[in-house]
Design brief:
This protein is of the alpha/beta class and 219 residues long. The protein has 10 helices and 8 strands. An 8-stranded parallel β-barrel has the order 1-2-3-4-5-6-7-8, surrounded by 6 helices. Strand 1, helix 2 and strand 2 form a beta-alpha-beta unit. Helix 2 packs parallel to helix 3 and helix 2 packs parallel to helix 10.
C-alpha cells in the first residue's frame, strides 16, 4: 500500500491500542479481533525484549486481524522487521533510532510514529507521520517516565501539525478530561488489553470519542 494511502487512513483513526503478545494474559488472537470490532482502528504490537521469531509470530496474528478489520498495524521499535511483519508502520521512542533511519529501514511506504514527552519534542517531530503525546498520567507500562499532565495535550492541540494520540493512563474515567484539553485521538493499553470484555471496552471509548467529534462538528 502506498504511504499516501496509509496517511489518509491514519487521518481517520481515533482509537489506538498498544499491547504485547498476551494482552491481559490471554492469547492475542482472543483479544485483538474483539478490540478491533469494538472500534480500535490502529494496533501497535510492543514486545521490547522478545526474540525476532517471537515478534514475527505475534505479528502474523496482528497483521491478519488488522487486515480483516481494515485497521492499521504498527510495530514498535523494530523498523528492520516491518516488512517481514507485514506492518503498516513502525513506532519509535525518543531514545530509539532517529526518524530518518527508522524510515530508511522500514521502507518508504510505511508510516513512522514517534513518542513525545515535552513541548520541544512535539514541535520537533516534523519527520514523523504521527506522534504519541504523553504519558498524560503515570502508568506502569512506562516505568520511570514521569506523567506530563494535560498541559502537553493542550500544547499539542495548539501546535502539532501532525496527527497525534494522547497516551498514558487514558481510560473511560480519564478520557473526558483528555478530550477537554484538546485531544481528538487517544492511545490506550490497559483500558482495553486488560478488560474482561475488550470489545465492550473499546466500544465504550469509541462512543465517547465519536460523541466528541459530533459535538465539535456541530459547534
Amino acid at each position: 500500500m502506498p504511504l499516501t494511502d496509509r496517511r489518509d487512513r491514519l487521518q481517520r483513526c481515533r482509537l489506538y491500542l498498544v499491547s504485547g503478545a498476551a494482552p491481559g494474559g490471554r492469547p492475542l488472537a482472543d483479544v485483538l479481533p474483539a478490540a478491533l470490532a469494538g472500534g480500535v482502528d490502529v494496533f501497535q504490537l510492543r514486545m521490547k525484549d522478545a526474540r525476532d521469531d517471537e515478534i514475527l509470530a505475534a505479528a502474523a496474528v496482528a497483521a491478519a486481524a488488522c487486515r480483516d478489520a481494515g485497521a492499521l498495524f504498527i510495530l514498535n521499535d523494530r523498523p528492520d522487521l516491518a516488512a517481514a511483519a507485514g506492518a503498516d508502520g513502525v513506532h519509535v521512542g525518543q531514545d530509539d533510532l532517529p526518524l530518518a533511519r527508522a524510515r530508511e529501514l522500514a521502507g518508504p511506504d510505511r508510516l513512522v510514529g514517534q513518542s513525545t514527552h515535552s513541548p520541544a519534542q512535539v514541535d520537533a517531530a516534523a519527520g514523523a507521520d504521527y506522534i504519541g503525546v504523553g504519558p498524560v498520567h503515570a502508568t506502569p507500562t512506562k516505568p520511570g517516565r514521569p506523567a506530563v499532565g494535560l498541559e502537553l495535550v493542550g500544547h499539542a492541540a495548539a501546535h502539532a501539525a501532525l496527527p497525534w494520540f494522547a497516551i498514558g493512563g487514558v481510560d473511560a474515567a480519564t478520557l473526558g478530561a483528555v478530550l477537554a484539553a484538546g485531544a481528538r485521538r487517544v492511545a490506550v493499553v490497559r483500558a482495553v488489553a486488560d478488560a474482561a470484555d475488550p470489545a465492550a471496552a473499546a466500544r465504550g471509548l469509541r462512543a465517547i470519542l465519536d460523541a466528541e467529534a459530533l459535538d465539535g462538528a456541530a459547534a
